[in-house]
Amino acid sequence: xxxxxxxxxxxxxxxxxxxxxxxxxxxxxxxxxxxxxxxxxxxxxxxxxxxxxxxxxxxxxxxxxxxxxxxxxx
Length: 74
Fold this sequence. Notes:
74 residues
C-alpha cells in the first residue's frame, strides 16, 4: 500500500475517525518528533498552567479521559 493510497483512504473516514487516526500517528511518532513553535502568549499561558499544576491548584484528569472528551466534541 502506498502513502497516496493511505491518504485517500483516510479522507473517506469521518472526522471522528480521522481524529483517532491522528492520535495514533502522533503516538507512533513519539513526543520527540513533535516540534511546536509557540507564540509568546502561548508560552506564558503554558508557564501559568504548569505553575498551577505544580502548586496543586489545577484539577487534572488522566490523558485517556481527556482524549475521550475531545473525541466526543468532534
